[in-house]
Amino acid sequence: MAHSFLPMGIFVILSAMTFCLPAISALEDSAQLTFQKTVVSGKSFPHHTVRKNESVYSILRKLPGVAENDIPRYFQIIKALNPQVKNWDKIYPGQEIALPPTDAIGVRKEESSTARANLSAGASGRRTYLVRRGDYLIRIVRREMNIASGTQQIMLRIKEMNPAIRDANLLYPGQVLWLPERYGQAKVETPPFTDEFRHEQAKQPDKRSEPTGETRPSAAVMPQEQPARREEPDAGRKSSLLSASARLEIIRHIVEQMQGSLLTKGNYYLPVSRTVQLEIDCSAIPVVELNDQTTVFLDMKNRLHLSLQKLTGSRWSNWHIVKIDAKDDVIAILKKIFEKSKSYKLIRAEKPLAVGSQSNVEIPVDWMINRKTADQPSKTVQGLRLVSHNQDILPRAITHFARANSLVITEFSPRTGLTGRPEELYTLPPPTVLPKSPAGELGHALLSYLKLPAEKDAEIRVFNLEKDGFNLSIKADVLLAQGEKKTVVLSRPLPEEFIQILQETGYRLIFVSDRDNPATNMEKILRGVNVPFASGYFLFSGADKNQPPYTIGFQGIKIKADQDIYVVNFDVHPDLLGLLKEAWSATLVRY
After folding, report:
1. Phi/psi at 58 (5° precision)
2. b/e string for 96-119 if b means 16 or more Cβ within 10 A?
3. One domain, residues 518 and 538
4. How many domains does the chain have?
5. Which of 123, 75, 83 is nearest to 100 (CA)?
6. Is residue 27 situated within a structural domain?
7. Contact at 8 Å (CB) between 229 and 414?
8. What is the pLDDT of residue 382?
9. Cβ-count burial of 18 within 10 angstroms (0-12 exposed, 13-18 middle, 19+ buried)?
10. How far apart are CA 521 and CA 438, in angstroms?
11. Is 567 helix (H, G, I), strand (E, B) or coil?
């Protein structure tokens, strides 16, 4: 067997026993790949006897240290180790299959243990709480912890202790929360300050929300730099290029948002045959795994011999090696990765991304990761924003809303790396919901919400015994008495003479119908009681509030009362409710 194509540091070990060569310091730069001799009988790879009702996925999930994201990679290795299995959907009880060694995955064990330690440290002195029907976070803080002020910090602390909670306003009965036993000052970590930014920030006035004058939560700290979003990423920008580790962390975040992974620790194994496997040191050659079974090896220092690249391309259709130049920025690296993907492509954004249907949000992005295969819709799964200024960072309410609509937004600075605003927690009560029908009940609920003295199912006398010789009264759905003015809302028709008598005695009549659209009935009522309103499509621009130029738009009825009230016929994401309330003092009511 000829091995002339192998560079220094790539070895074939022909011993019947599995072992690894010690590191050779003189060849440190090239000793990242080895071909390793293995024996597929008994001891080299563990074997598993298939039991009744087992599938390959249920077997994989039982392997120690295997996370859900690891399963696609493990499955590829198992297929290579068991070429005798023709149909993995039909494995049968008693069948023996070889399993990969438990360290073949290159799992980031150090990171996992660190995360567990951090969680344990952050949750010391904690207790559990079982969520009840109607609970939301601020109510739990006030009722269970007897805290009336400073609630923002304690809610952030609870979010730290419960990382699985994506939306603090969406709790469900039976959910278990960790609560601090004794409340201390919550620690909210932000990226480190730079001397340059401290100097620039000192010259800028505080940004305050309108109209209350309360200081908005400070965004993640970033150095000031003029954006250059329309330059090609590989146009020769050498200054301010992120370090290799910082670029990899951005790549890791982007790939993990798509249920993929980036391995920068441990070893990665590729089975060349039943007796030989290729071992890759992930700290020297990072490995990107996408959720479409595409694996990309990032050759950061041009270490891999051309012959080995050809071997990889010819033997494994899903595994690819790409050369990463020192001048490649994040976008250039992503382009090289997604050029190898079967299902995704990276393209420049020509217009803002539209998210949602009834409450439509438009988000400006620089790049989009789209699906590209014929059997999948051309849909954006992630938008990338290159930000340079503090005010360029989107509010979390916008990114949360995008994620709720299956779109991930990733923001990073070309100089400082990943960024984002601190978590925004809005202490809003549950939104008011008006009944769509019957029309009379809708009218009473609307007028009561506007704090008008509305009496439901009121009796109005039309004929009087003393005056007319007999009594006759009608039942109004709603009676609104404002001084000498009396307004009646009726959902049933009246004889013409009754209408004339009521009008002659000073009553203003408003007729609504269960057959009409609820919006039409509300417009009749508001017009009849002289409450200013407007119907149409309403647009809120972040640029008007010194924020990025996102927009929020929806169809509804705007009522001008002591505050701006917007009545809509759909559920609004809780974070959008909070953002509209904080930035625009707008309250949304649903019917």
Report:
1. -65, -35
2. ebbbbeeebbbbbeeeeeeeeeee
3. no
4. 3
5. 75
6. no
7. no
8. 95
9. middle
10. 10
11. strand
Tokens at 42, concatenated:
């008994």
Residue 349 inside a domain? The answer is no
Torsions phi, psi for 383 (to 5 deg): -110, 140
pLDDT at 157: 82
Q: Are residues 547 and 491 in the same domain?
A: no
pLDDT of residue 381: 92
Helices (H), 389-482: 396-404, 439-449, 465-468
What is the total residue count of the chain?
591
Residue 493 lies in a domain: yes
Please give the DSSP secondary-structure letter assigned to residue 291: T
Q: Is the same domain home to 542 and 585?
A: yes
Residues 544 and 552: their CA atoms lie apart, in Å, by 12
User: Do 473 and 493 fall into the same domain?
Assistant: yes
Does 576 lie in the same domain as 539?
A: yes
Which tens digits make up the pLDDT trace of 26-51?
333 333 444 443 333 334 567 888 98
Q: Tokens 């494995």 identify what position?
A: 91
Long-range contact set of residues 35-42: C-beta below 8 Å, sequence gap at least 24: 35/6, 35/10, 35/11, 35/272, 35/276, 35/277, 35/278, 35/279, 36/276, 36/277, 36/278, 36/279, 37/12, 37/13, 37/275, 37/276, 38/275, 38/276, 38/277, 39/275, 40/81, 40/98, 40/274, 40/275
The residue out of 160, 180, 200 marking a domain boundary is 180
Question: What is the rounded distance in angstroms from the CA atom of residue 75 to the CA atom of residue 88?
Answer: 10
Give the pLDDT of residue 275: 63
Residue 152 belongs to domain with CATH number:
3.10.350.10
> Do residues 433 and 472 lie in contact, with contact meaning Cβ atoms separated by under 8 Å?
no
Last residue of a domain, one of 511, 528, 545: 528
52 DSSP β-pair partners:
none
Residues 522 and 542 in one domain: no
Q: Are residues 473 and 514 in the same domain?
A: yes
For the chain (591 residues), the mean pLDDT of every run of 10, in chain order, is 35 30 31 39 66 83 73 77 82 86 44 37 62 76 77 79 69 75 44 36 39 34 37 43 90 93 86 69 90 89 64 68 90 95 92 90 94 71 90 90 93 88 73 93 95 91 66 85 88 87 88 94 94 94 90 95 92 91 93 94
Residue 551: which domain range?
533-590
For the segment 320-337, what is each residue's pLDDT rounded down to a tens digit?
A: 888 998 889 999 999 999
CA atoms within 13 A on the CB side of 388: 9
Residue 66 lies in a domain: no
